[in-house]
Design goal:
It contains 4 helices and no strands. The protein is mainly α and 147 residues long. It has 3 domains: 37 residues; 55 residues; 50 residues.
Length: 147
């Protein structure tokens, strides 16, 4: 086969290239997902929620790996890391509750309604100004014809 003829350094380079291609595809997928999530106003909150969830999972895995690699007595560090994960869970539960996201959506809807109303008023004012401008041009043309 092709891989049998390669030397160790060539295999390492080949594996690095394959890894880079896979990482590129994963990053491309990840950033596409982030853009899709953040399109809506409450999407940024959802993105923050996902970030905190990943952070808490990372802390949990860090604590788990630490306990597996360094078994022994309970120390202040163990208790501190456990409290950090607990506080992250509490923050997730309180700050990113469904009610908070619904309130954010209501607030963004109200703001968008105000923007729509302002836009309608602005367009009506522009329409009036255009009509006045056209009327003034007609009057100027009449005055020019009289002269």
């Amino acid at each position: 086969m092709f891989l049998d003829k390669l030397q160790l350094s060539d295999l390492i380079i080949f594996n690095c290239i394959i890894l880079l291609v896979i990482l590129f595809l994963v990053f491309k997928w990840f950033f596409r997902q982030v853009r899709d999530i953040c399109k809506e106003p409450e999407g940024i909150i959802k993105f923050g929620q996902i970030s905190f969830i990943l952070l808490s999972w990372g802390c949990f895995l860090g604590i788990l790996i630490y306990f597996v690699l360094k078994p022994g007595e309970t120390s202040v560090l163990h208790i501190f890391l456990t409290i950090v994960v607990g506080f992250l869970g509490t923050i997730l539960g309180l700050f990113f509750s469904r009610d908070a996201i619904e309130n954010l959506k209501k607030t963004s809807d109200v703001k968008s309604d105000f923007i729509k109303e302002d836009t309608v008023e602005l367009l009506e004012d522009v329409e009036k100004l255009i009509k006045e401008n056209i009327g003034q041009k007609k009057e100027i043309e009449k005055l020019k014809r009289r002269l």
